[in-house]
Predict the 3D structure of the following.
Amino acid sequence: MARIRAMLKTTAVRLSLLYLLLFVVSATALLFYISAQSERAIRGQTERAIEREVRAINSTYRRSGVNGLVRQIERRSRQPGSNLYIIASPNGEIFAGNVAEIQPGIFDQNGDINEPFKYKRFGDFDAEYTALAHVMELPNGFKLLVGRDLAEPDRFNNLIERALMSALAIMGLGALAIWFFVGRSALKRIDRMSAASEKIMGGDLSQRLPVMGSGDEFDRMSTSLNTMLGRIEQLNEGLRQVSDNIAHDLKTPLTRLRNRAESTLASKATAKDYRAALEDMISESDQLIRIFSALLMISRVEAGSAAAKLSDLDLSAVALDAAELYEPVAEDADVKLITDIDKDIKINGNRELIGQTLTNLIDNAIKYSSGDVKSRDDANIWVRLKSEDDKIVLSVSDNGPGIPKDKYDEVTKRFVRLDKSRNKPGTGLGLSLVDAVIRMHGGELELSTTDDQKEDLPGLTVSLKFPAKA
Amino acid sequence: MKILIIEDDLETAAYLTKAFREAGLNVDHASDGDSGYFLATENSYDVMVVDRMLPKRDGLSIISSLRDQGNETPVLILSALGQVDDRVTGLRAGGDDYLTKPYAFSELLARVEILGRRKGTRDTETIYRVGDLELDRLSHEVRRGGQVINLQPREYSLLEYLMNNAGQVVTRTMLLENVWDYHFDPQTNVIDVHISRLRSKIEKGFEGSLLHTIRGAGYILKASEN
């Protein structure tokens, strides 16, 4: 019973109930319409039959007078399923014919009697019959009534009505059955979905909602929920990884910090040594702080709290500013910074975050293009901003050694540094911050080589693809 | 200079009080919002350093109440939060500067000193002078010893900011915020490179250095003593 009640609450069942109701109403209307139409058609047929009869009898009368008329009527009345014939005296008494009794007042009328009237037959006084008729006055004042019983048309009518009624009933029952099965299967799928989501709530994020492959609304919902779950799982995984990494990455500098303090205390150091040690420790702590703020920033950006702070932004100006900020740095590092920035490109964005992202990328590019390779005089980096179809592409390229293509995915993960010894300055958070920022802007991050032709120095191009402003 | 610190973490407060006193400042301390507000209304301070999250009454509400009463004492907000919008809400509530924890004391000191000096601001002067260096804010012309020095627009803004705060330590972060309008810390010391360029432009071929590096803190622009 509870199941039925639950079923009654499903949208599918409610909708089908509504449809059922609409169906019954329209089918009933149809029924009435059809039976009215068929009744009219049959009555019209009856009336035409009467008319034919009247014409025939009339011609007989004209040919052979009253006697011939009576004879013909007697003959016709005896035929099975015959019409009604009455010859009545001018005062309405039945004179001849095959009718025992007739509704009074019929003979007062003349011509077609279109309202069904009652009559009784010989030998069957208990039953009343109905008929339509035509009354005609004969020249001698007598009246002739030719009628047709309505039992047959009525039967036909009833037949149609019954047929329609049973069709209606069958359809109703069918609808109920379909409704029951549809409702039940919908409910079953929902049950399966809630079972799956309970498992997920229980902490098993690898669970997915069932997808039947039919592409219906349940499937679509399951698919989008599954996508969401995938993202949650990914974020969760990221979070787990981060806490592992934090533990690892912060432990190293913290230990170094502590050791430095301890060894300075233990040694017979002069004031100058103390000062040097303290300065080291400060820069070590600064590095720690930098890691913390980068982490905080990433999690804030990923939480999307800054998403609302997007506003009209002149990306060209942001790119120029960043390039200008780094131009002297590049020059000092013997790297040529080349800008190719289209003017007046606007997006919906956050200047701070994009500025930080971009300086980050330029900083990296400078670091890695001059990099380990012995002093080069052709180290270049490019900052480009182009509008391409429906995308706006901001890219930073270098012509340094690049990174292996199979590591592209890895480097956007937090704390991943391909440089295992970690002796280059940096938090290992750069690209994951970039990734988080571009994602917040509804765009995507793409890594590629700058020049495939050069095997030893393919370079790295980091492209930020923003959606064009609508 | 007399300052008020409203900070509920007693250890931090003790450290700050001591460090500020060593730097020659006169320090009062309140450890919750109510007493901080009381001190701020009773006494007159040159600068207030206010933590955002305080027991009894939060920092922003103290600041807006003071501003409503016409108290214009410069306020530096300290905060553990650290996003752009936090800064914006802080400044909108009436704060004059915003610093995110953790911070270096040298950064805090430099900012407090600049805030404390702001009362006699140089914003109205049209020509800044430090030693024989001159910056004309109307014609955007820079001269040293009468000789014109050509600067890029950004170098000009950098010098203008330094000259406006001549004799005060300015940190790299302050330069990034005020000259480049960036509120984050780029990894490499980009500022150092810009400073050294500027320095070579205003010092090369001239007698006496003006732009000095203060280790662990930042830069100071001042005429050499000799």
Remarks:
- The longest strand of chain B covers residues 2-6.
